[in-house]
Structures are given as C-alpha cells and as structure tokens.
Amino acid sequence: MLHLKILLLLGILISTATRVFAGQGTIDTGDTAWVTMSTALVMMMTPAGLALFYGGMSRYKNMLNTIAMILVAYCLASIVWVGWGYSLAFGESSNLFIGNLDHLFLINIDIHSVTGTIPTLIFVLFQMTFACISIALVLGSVVDRMKFSSWIVFTVLWVTFVYTPVCNWAWGGGWMHKIGALDFAGGNVVHINAGVSGLVLALYLGKRKGYGKEAMIPSSVTFTALGAGLLWFGWFGFNAGSALAADGIAASAFLVTNTAAAIGGLAWLFVEWKHSKKPTLLGLASGAIAGLVGITPAAGFVTLTGALAIGAVSGIIGFFGVAVLKLKLGYDDSLDAFGIHGLCGMWGAIATGLFAAPSITEGAAGLFYGNPKQVLIQLLSIVGTIAFSATATVIVILVTKTLTKGIRVDRDDELAGLDNALHGERAFEIE
Questions:
Q1: Residues of the chain with confidence (pLDDT) below 50
Q2: How would you write 330-341 as a 3-class SS string?
Q3: Cα–Cα dist 62/421, whole Å
C-alpha cells in the first residue's frame, strides 16, 4: 500500500511538472501537427488557389503574366520574410510600431525555440504564408498593366515597409494589440492592407486601355471557380490555424469560416440574380470569397449566428462594391481586390466589434455582448490601417518608379498582351 501511495504521489508530481513546463514553452505535438498542416493549406492558397482565381479572371492574353506575378511574389515574399520581415514584425521592441532586427535571417532561432506550444520555426513559416498571400492580393487591382520588373521591386518594398508594420501592430505587440483591437486572422493585416494598397496602385497606374469601352472578358470562369474552391479549402488553415493550437477555438473558427463562405456565396448569387437577372458562377465564387474575407478577423471570436450575419452582409457588400461602387466612381480595380478584400475586410473588422462573444474567447466581447467600446476600437484600427497603407504604398510606388524607370508597361505591349510580349509564352493556342 505504501508503494502504491508513493507511485501515485510521483504521478501527481510528474503531471504537475509537465503542465508547468508546458506553460513555459514545451512543444505540444498535436498543436504542432495542426499548425504545420495549416501552414501547408495557406501556402497552397497563393501559387495554386489565387493563381487560378486571378488567372481565370484575367483576359486570355494576360493569364500567364498574372500567374507569373503571383508566383514570383510568393518567392520574393518568402525570402524577405525569413531574411528580415519576421524580425520586423515579431521581434520584441519597446516601441509600438515596428519590431527589430534581432532575428535577421532567423538568427537566434533554432530547432529548440518555442512559440506558445509549437516550434518557432513553424510559427515563422505560418506567418510567412500570410505575408505571401497579402502581396499577391494587391496584384488583383493592377493586372494587365504593370511592368514585371516593377512588380518585383514593389513586392520587396511593400512586404518590408507596408506589411510588416501592420503585422507588428496587430500580432507583434504593437499599438493595435495594446488598445485591444481584435484581428484573429488578418482583417486589418491582410485584407484591408492589401485592398487599400491595391486601390492606390491602381489609381496611380491609371485605367487599362479600352476600360469602359470594350468588354474585358475573363479567360476562364472555370479556372476561377476551381481557384475559389482551393482558396476556400486553404482558408480553413488560414483561420482555424490562427488559433495556433488544436483546440475548441480552432474548431469553432473552422465552423464559422465554412458557414460564412457558404452564406456569402448565396447572398451574392441572389442579389446579383435580382439585380442583373442572371445568377453567374463568377458571382457565386466571388461571394464565397467575400464571406471568407469578412469572417477572417472574427473567426476566433464569434458564434455561428455571428458568422451567418457577417457572411451574408459580406456577400452583399462585395457585390455592390464590384457592380455598383466601382462603376459609379470609375476606378479600374481589375480583379476587384479592393471591392472584395478591402471593403469586406473593413466590414469584417467592424463586425468583430459587434459579434465577438466571450463564450468563444474569454475577454473578447463586442457590442451585442455588452461592450460597445469594442466597435470604436475596431474603427480606430481600420482608420489607422487605411491611412498608413495608403501613405506608405504611395512612397513605395514612387521609389519603385525611380528604380525601374516607370511602372506601367508600354502601350503596344499592353494592347498585344503581356503573356507573349513579356514572357514569350501563351496560355492558350488560338487559331
């Protein structure tokens, strides 16, 4: 009996010690496996999902150029991130605006480093995929008319000087985090940031030749729909993976992500059907993406009811942003990066302040749960992101223009098509 008591006591001590050490940064294999899988899912979203989604929406003569610019953006952002981007975004700093260079080329991070309950190297890679897709989203506003060389320079500068500061503000301990702004998976960091930057770049470049005078028909709505499906699939890693743990919050984020996408697609479809008399596949796919954008900042904070409301309104906002606002104001946002990501990202950030439920994440409460102050905090974060993103993007554009002697393609190349003019390739052989 004495031996049994001793064994029980040792078991309790070992269990307690394990929990203590876990709290100090012991790796949890379940969490690590989930975040590793989520990283792979989000990685797939850029060179596969977004490439098909944007490539199919591009005109046939520019399809390969669009895909090439997405792929090169992924490659460049990957190098920038492990070189200095991660350190600027997540390096501990006494200021509230940017990190440091203590982890330049991941110095001081090795296989034993732990963030939460996962290896820091996996956390670095997971966050890298967010930087990669953010710059790729910017491209959606300017396909058909930007020099490939200028895009390369713009990508390096944008990830360094526009993306990393906003990432630091929300997730690296910066001012958004300090005031209590809620951004679970990238409403401000990814969607508003990229959408506003895309609009600024589109306005600077000017409209495509023939815009508003000739039909600019997508090369393959089929590719776009397939791309939307891959994006939807990858978004589960994007949102549920942002819990950084295989837990109940991740499960809830998974559920509300799918729900918002589904209702967003239906909302866009039926509004378009009423407005234009035709329910299009492009509209259904775009609505699903709008719903995914809207739920992104809220995914770890809202219930199923909140997801339904956020997704439905996102589909409606996305449709009117693309079919009404863009036409009324006359700007040429080629593939509607601002109309979907910018506008729906703003709505999602505001909606997080409305629907955040403490039953999902303790301490996170919105207006409908007795905390009206959260809406004001969310609005402040949105205004800060818009102001910084627009201003910093203008500076990046001017530097890029100087370094590459202009950023718009030649008129003849634009009219002929960039696939053949710039790359010597064609997506389709047309007799």
A1: 1-2, 4-24
A2: CCCCCCCHHHHH
A3: 10
Query: pTM for the complete prediction?
Result: 0.93
177 phi/psi in degrees, rounded to 5: -65, -40
CA separation for the pair 271, 355 (Å, rounded) = 24
pLDDT score of 380 = 98
**Three state DSSP letters for 171-205:** HCCCHHHHHCCCCCCCHHHHHHHHHHHHHHHHHHH
Helix (H, G, I), strand (E, B), or coil: what is residue 163? helix
Coil/strand/helix, residue 119: strand
What is the per-residue pLDDT for 427?
86
In a domain, 336, yes or no: yes
Q: How far is CA 3 from CA 6, 8, 10, 16, 131, in A?
A: 5, 9, 11, 20, 57
Task: Judge whether 19 lies within some domain.
Answer: no
> How many Å apart are CA 374 and CA 364, to the nearest integer?
9
Among left, alpha and beta (phi > 0; psi -120 to 50; other), residue 277 is left
3-state secondary structure of 42: helix
Residue 85 per-residue DSSP state: I
Here the CATH number for the domain that contains residue 366 is: 1.10.3430.10
The boundaries of the domain holding residue 114 are 28-423
89's tokens: 């975004």
As for how many domains the chain has, the answer is 1
Among 335, 319, 321, which Cα is nearest to 57's?
Answer: 335
Give which of 134, 192, 137 is closest to 164, Cα–Cα.
Answer: 134
**In angstroms, rounded to a whole number, what is the distance separating the alpha carbons of residues 170 and 184?**
9
The answer to whether residue 8 is domain-embedded is no
User: Do the beta carbons of residue 319 and residue 371 sit within 8 Å?
Assistant: no
Q: What is the DSSP string of 339-392?
A: IIIIHHHHHHHHHHHHH--TTTSTT---GGGT-THHHHHHHHHHHHHHHHHHHH
| Whole-number pLDDT of residue 428 | 76
Instruction: Output the pLDDT for position 189.
Output: 98
Q: Residue 429, by phi and psi: left (phi above 0), alpha (psi -120 to 50) or beta? A: beta
Torsion angles phi and psi, residue 140, rounded to 5: -55, -25
Residues 6+ apart with CB under 8 A from 215: none
In a domain, 172, yes or no: yes
- What's 108's DSSP letter? T
* pLDDT tens digits for range 281-300: 999 999 999 999 999 999 99
Q: Which DSSP category does 409 fall into?
A: P
pLDDT of residue 430: 61
What is the Cα–Cα distance from 257 to 240, expressed in whole angstroms? 8
Give the amino acid at 294: G
